[in-house]
Design goal:
GO terms for molecular function: lytic endotransglycosylase activity. About 25% of the residues lie in helices and about 35% in strands. By secondary structure, it is an alpha/beta fold.
């Protein structure tokens, strides 16, 4: 009797584990957009202002500004120094300072920063291609 219950429990656990794995698998792929470029972050004075896309900016969200990427594009930003990455959504235009490629919200910048006092980071940008769309 105990063997039967043990087998049933094992079968159920295998079934639950495989279901969990299937539901957690992500069908996202990335493609390199730019390597070894610089990212900076928005100043707090921009909180509450409209972005170029019309969305209200918040430094507590995972968003970014780029000069040419389409609004709504999701970008994986990886800090080259520590390999930490974050996924942001493009909702604004910028940065307009020479040598900078992307402006991150403070939340996104802090998520990948190796130094909280840094003003810019060298990063790699990858475009997210979600096959679920």
């Amino acid at each position: 009797m105990n063997l039967r219950y043990s087998l049933i429990i094992i079968i159920l656990l295998i079934g639950f584990t495989s279901c969990k794995t299937a539901s957690n698998s992500k069908n996202t792929k990335t493609s390199l957009y730019k390597d070894e470029v610089f990212a900076c972050y928005y100043h707090n004075k921009f909180n509450g202002r409209k972005t170029a896309s019309g969305i209200i900016f918040s430094n507590s969200k995972l968003t970014a500004a780029h000069k040419s990427l389409t609004f709504g594009t999701k970008v994986k930003v990886t800090n080259i120094e520590n390999n930490k990455s974050v996924i942001v959504e493009i909702n604004d235009r910028g940065p307009f300072t020479k040598g900078l490629e992307i402006d991150l919200s403070k939340k996104a910048f802090d998520a990948i920063s190796h130094d909280k006092k840094a003003g810019k980071l060298q990063v790699k940008l990858e475009l997210i291609n979600d096959s679920k769309k």
